[in-house]
Design a protein that fits this description.
Elements: H1 13-31, E1 40-41, H2 43-50, H3 54-66, E2 71-73, E3 77-79, H4 86-109, H5 112-127, H6 141-156, H7 161-181, H8 190-202, H9 206-224
Antiparallel strand pairs: 1-3, 2-3
Helix pairs in contact: 1-3, 2-3, 4-7, 4-9, 5-6, 5-8, 6-7, 7-9, 8-9
Length: 232
């Protein structure tokens, strides 16, 4: 008797592409402040605006929740994240527990190729304008990507893929707070902070490098603290 083999149904490329397009657009809207902190993200309204099914929009919103770019409200749907929430304190706490150790490992393990990539990533960051002409409310997409690239390159020398995956998740979840902090800290000199990080890391000075990183990570949370202006 012939045996019928069963396989999982293949994914529908069209639906995947549609979901990805809607995800990219909604993600940019959240990051660019089209939806302000706490604004509702109503699945039915968004699905109608984007011309997609309610199922696709809910899938996109759940994905944003997983990245920290949306909040799920019990019995009330979804909303844009609120940076003053304790979540941002927790994100900073998680990054402070993770990234200094990763940086120490990178300084210990990183080779000449790592040093070269760190220099290149810092050069790109230093030469990329923080804001697009005429738009100073939020960091530009180009600067945000250069910023992420510099920090990730610094830590890549640790050689631990699991730690780097965790860093990626925390970075994405922190992105809204970083962009909002751009107009909360007008006197902050991010270029100086990044230069200090680069110099200490390439000097193979783990104490100076991790101290600089801790200060750098804490300042975004400090800027967004509504009550005391201090970080964890």
């Amino acid at each position: 008797m012939a045996v019928t083999q069963t396989t999982d149904a293949p994914a529908r490329p069209g639906k995947q592409m549609l979901s990805e397009r809607v995800y990219d657009r909604l993600r940019k809207d959240v990051l660019h402040g089209v939806f302000g902190p706490g604004d509702p993200l109503k699945p039915q309204e968004l699905a109608k605006q984007q011309g997609v099914s309610l199922a696709v929009m809910r899938e996109v919103l759940v994905r944003l929740v997983g990245e920290g770019l949306a909040t799920r409200l019990p019995n009330r749907g979804f909303a844009a994240p609120t940076p003053s929430d304790s979540r941002w304190q927790q994100l900073t706490e998680a990054r402070l527990a993770l990234e200094p150790d990763m940086l120490r490992m990178a300084i210990e393990r990183g080779d000449l190729e790592w040093e070269t990539r760190v220099r290149a990533a810092h050069h790109r960051l230093a030469r990329t304008p923080e804001f697009d002409p005429g738009h100073t409310a939020y960091y530009s997409d180009a600067w945000a990507e250069a910023h992420r690239g510099f920090h990730r390159t610094l830590l890549e020398g640790c050689g631990n893929a699991i730690l780097l995956e965790t860093f990626d998740r925390l970075w994405t979840a922190s992105e809204v707070a970083r962009r909002l902090a751009s107009h909360h800290t007008p006197d902050r000199s991010a270029p100086d902070e990044h230069g200090e990080l680069e110099r200490a890391a390439l000097a193979r000075d783990p104490i100076a490098a991790t101290d600089a990183l801790v200060r750098h990570l804490s300042r975004t949370t400090a800027a967004l603290s509504p009550a005391t202006g201090t970080s964890i």
